[in-house]
Amino acid sequence: MAMRAEYAGSRPLRGARVSGSLHMTVQTAVLIETLTALGASVRWASCNIFSTQDHAAAAVVVGPHGTPEEPRGVPVFAWKGESLEEYWWCTRQALTWPEGGPQLIVDDGGDATLLVHLGVEYEKAGAVPDPATAGSEEEAVILRLLAGTLREQPRLWTTVARDVIGVSEETTTGVHRLYERERDGTLLFPAINVNDSVTKSKFDNRYGVRHSLVDGINRGTDVLIGGKVAVVCGYGDVGKGCAEALRGQGAKVTVTEVDPICALQAAMDGYPVATLEDMLPTADIVITATGNRDIVRVEHMAAMKHLAIVGNIGHFDNEIDMAGLAGFPGIRRVNIKPQVDQWTFPDGHAVLVLSEGRLLNLGNATGHPSFVMSNSFANQVIAQLELFTRAEEYPVGVHRLPKRLDEKVARLHLSALGARLTKLTKRQADYIGVPVEGPYKPDHYRY
Ligand code: NAI
């Protein structure tokens, strides 16, 4: 709201075409409203097949001045429970404009960026994608889509990429993909890493998850968490939020880690650090939060306690081996309710898998609450403004927002929590070597 008030007059995104691929929740609806209020034209898709809140998508389509019969809002291509084909069709719709492509992309996990890059690469190589070579069902879907566009509109993706000024990326996993492209020299346009704004990853990933992990487990299963043995795989920002939330509910929480620094943090925060194998006989709840693949494998699930709950809160569904589970000889799947499945092994024991291994806080619940998303999305709006109005400062590569803007986002949220900042005196500021108005920390400071 503060950003809308600041820019209501100047509408600095006037004329900008923005394509978004980010969970279509009520908070995202407000982000879309803000981008529109700043002058942008927007098209949107969700970045997960289960994360759309249909009422939010509908409200954005209808718009504040429209009716369901005469919608006047923003084109949204998203609904809860898309198939993979539908998901990638939606992503394509959000990226393709009557004018060609977007000028700006808001991405979460990098799927929109991936589709544009793959499309351009195939068009440049003059190669026809072959779904038979795909390593996964989802990859086959993407290759089929690209084979179709190459047949029907051979220059589609080159046209889409042509006007892109840049992308702002929301999450750890998407940022990881961007740095890989930068390293390999295959990045086509500038990118702003919103995730590593302090007011994003140290808040959304941690405090947002601290709220929405338990919300997802409760809505999915309604088991009493107190007294249960919980395992959190990964003790990064998201894992820290998970462990704290589960401990807050009275669970006995154990952490698994590969990084000795994060493992030591977990240990000093009072969590036993063990391997998943150590915990299989006792774990009641296993949560993956690594952004890495193959964390909970089918042999783990085969050795778990009866009715252990297995869920992922990392971005992609490859943290839990769902394909291995489905292919286990003699396994039986019973859908208990949407996004909750009981998988029974031939020996009679079962595991409960949330959201088919996709991020459970958005699949089984409604993701993070608005106040924390306001921090993340203020960074997104600032990133979009930076790319559109100061493009010369952001050459092709991956950039972070300047610290003064990070501090601005924090400052905007303080009064709502009743916080009062202490003001540095000039003498104090000189003593610690910072300007009175900030920024207060060097870039390498870790918070
Ligand atoms: P991070 O990099 O801070 O933490 C991940 C941790 O997992 C690291 O400490 C790493 O050492 C550890 N790890 C990697 N492989 C492991 C293994 N085999 N076993 C145990 N630990 C392992 O990343 P962050 O920010 O915590 O994000 C994690 C994931 O959550 C990402 O995919 C991110 O995109 C996603 N995310 C999801 C959100 C949601 O609402 N569901 C919100 C924010 C991020």
TrEMBL record:
UniProt KW Hydrolase keyword: yes
GO cellular component, one term: cytosol
Keywords, ordered alphabetically: Hydrolase, NAD, One-carbon metabolism
Positions of the S-adenosyl-L-homocysteine hydrolase NAD binding domain: 205-367
Reactions accelerated catalytically: S-adenosyl-L-homocysteine + H2O = L-homocysteine + adenosine
GO molecular function, one term: adenosylhomocysteinase activity
Sequence positions that bind NAD(+): 171-173, 236-241, 257, 313-315, 361, 368
Cofactor: NAD(+)
GO biological process, one term: one-carbon metabolic process
Pathway linked to the protein: Amino-acid biosynthesis; L-homocysteine biosynthesis; L-homocysteine from S-adenosyl-L-homocysteine: step 1/1
EC numbers for this chain: 3.13.2.1
PANTHER family assigned: ADENOSYLHOMOCYSTEINASE
Protein name: Adenosylhomocysteinase
